[in-house]
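Appendix B. One record, verbatim.
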Amino acid sequence: MKELLKLKNIGEVSAKMLVEIDVHNRGDIEKLGPATIYHILKAQGYNVNIMMVYALYGALKNKHYIEISEAEKDELQKQIKNQPFDSLEGTL
């Protein structure tokens, strides 16, 4: 969890959720991607929203989530909508 807490936008609550789904560091976030992590968290019953996706994306880009451009936000929203949940089979 220590590695996650070093990333921008990741606090104690988010880090605990991530560790519980076996995401332990930046590499894990990169491997799965913010949209996939969002869907996994939702499937596990966590009350997350688009802000989690922005936070994870910002963590990868080393910038605060409010610095993410509208174009980047639009792309992230498309990723969430276009990624069918059944395509995550085996990642849960």
